[in-house]
Write a structure and sequence with these properties.
It is a single chain. By secondary structure, the chain is of the alpha/beta class. The protein has a single domain, classed as Rossmann fold (3-Layer(aba) Sandwich), CATH 3.40.50. Strands 1, 2, 3, 4, 5 and 6 form a six-stranded parallel sheet that branches. Helix 1 links the parallel strand 1 and strand 2. The longest helix has 13 residues. The protein starts with a strand and ends in a 5-residue tail after the last helix. Bound molecules: flavin mononucleotide (FMN).
Amino acid sequence: MKMLILNGSPHKSGNTSYIVNKLKSKFNQEIEEIFLYDSKIQPCIDCRYCWKNEGCSIKDDMEKVYKDDYDILVIASPVYMYNVTPPMFALLTRLNWIWSNKYFLNKEAKLKKKRGILVLTGGGNGNPQNALDTAQLIFKFLNVDFNKEKDYIYSLNTNNISAKDDKNVIDMIENLCILC
Ligand SMILES: Cc1cc2nc3c(=O)[nH]c(=O)nc-3n(C[C@H](O)[C@H](O)[C@H](O)COP(=O)(O)O)c2cc1C
């Protein structure tokens, strides 16, 4: 079993990473974490390669996501301007070839079924609904099943209580069963 973590926070010891690290310690198997602020994942440039060819023309760290060699996908992001952070949104745009291949070439991407876990953190001054919708779109493109009732951990008042001091967050992490 392999867990791929897309960490969309610029902070390696901030609120999002605190929750991610707790999840990592609950999962004693293979883990690959991509810090999106450090990685090279360009946004889609609408080159239209995928209108006529399978896959994406850009070769960068997104290959690690396309590889589809993981069983659990963790999307972890602070809420910025009511949405996920810019590199996470850039990553979403790089999934557009999946739509284009289907629409223009009638070719379905062959991605295996996987499980999704979502981590969102927010200061408390913005509704996370857009971030939730964006994350769910990433899951959908990548053929990831996401159960919002069981696999969603959020800390949305970090201006007042950091994730590590929030009892609700600690309970959510404890109650999440990664291998169930
Ligand atoms: C550019 C920017 C935009 C933000 N927009 C929001 C927002 O819309 N809603 C919100 O609740 N918090 C917002 N925040 C606060 C962060 O989501 C919050 O501080 C979060 O806990 C940071 O996570 P981190 O410690 O993992 O980096 C914003 C912060 C920044 C820097």
